[in-house]
Amino acid sequence: METNLLHRGRLIDHIQLVVRDLKASRDFYAAVLAVLDIPIVDTPDGYFWADELVVSAADSPAAVGVLTGRHHLAFQAKDPATVEAFYAAALAHGGSDNGAPGERPYHPGYYAAFVLDPDGNNIEAVYHGEAKRSAPSVVIEF
After folding, report:
1. β-pair partners for 63
2. Are the beta carbons of 78 and 130 closer than 8 angstroms?
3. What is the pLDDT of residues 45-68, one digit of tens each?
4. Are 61 and 71 in contact (CB under 8 A)?
5. How far apart are the first and last CA of the chain?
6. What is the spatial distance between Cα 48 and Cα 59, in angstroms, rounded to a whole number?
7. Contacts of 43 (CB under 8 A, 6+ apart)
8. At what angle do helices 22-35 and 80-92 cross, to 10 degrees?
9. Would you say 84 and 108 are in contact if contact means Cβ atoms under 8 Å apart?
10. Which of 78-82, 108-112, 119-123, 133-137 has the lowest mean pLDDT?
11. If 0-12 CB within 10 Å is exposed, 13-18 middle and 19+ buried, where does residue 51 land?
12. Contacts 24+ apart (CB under 8 A), 112-116
């Protein structure tokens, strides 16, 4: 039997987006997630996934045939340069501007960029400033 490793956070097991155009979404997410060092796993079943994010076509067995509504997803970035690279990659791969990279008033050091993905989801990359993690992630082996 094959061993699989998953890296998970504390709250969300997974989020699924059901999209109109799987190829356009895959191009967009492959570009922005590559900047964040998050690999995409393709499947032959009409969806792809990256850590906690699953993106599927409406006719995929992973979906119920209905497009999801608009969502806001925020991805962690390791530094402001990564936020800027995320923003550039998003605009070059089908995303549109929803807030250029810069500091936000949410708390000191909050540096983020916002883009709309091909389905209008508000996608953010955020760097919260200097911090120390207790662990890189929770690893699940099965």
Report:
1. none
2. no
3. 999 999 899 999 999 988 888 899
4. no
5. 10
6. 13
7. 49
8. 160
9. no
10. 133-137
11. buried
12. 112/74, 112/83, 113/83, 113/84, 113/86, 113/87, 115/32, 115/87, 115/90, 115/91
pLDDT in tens, 67-91: 998 999 999 999 999 999 999 999 9
Residue with token string 């390791």 = 78
**CB-facing half-sphere around the CA of 94: CA atoms within 13 A:** 17
**Would you state the structure tokens that stand for residue 134, as one six-digit string?**
């207790």
Tokens of 106: 């949410």
95: which 2 tokens?
């995303």
Q: Give the 3-state secondary structure of 79-140.
A: CHHHHHHHHHHHHHCCCEECCCCEECCCCCCCEEEEEECCCCCEEEEEECCCCCCCCCCEEE
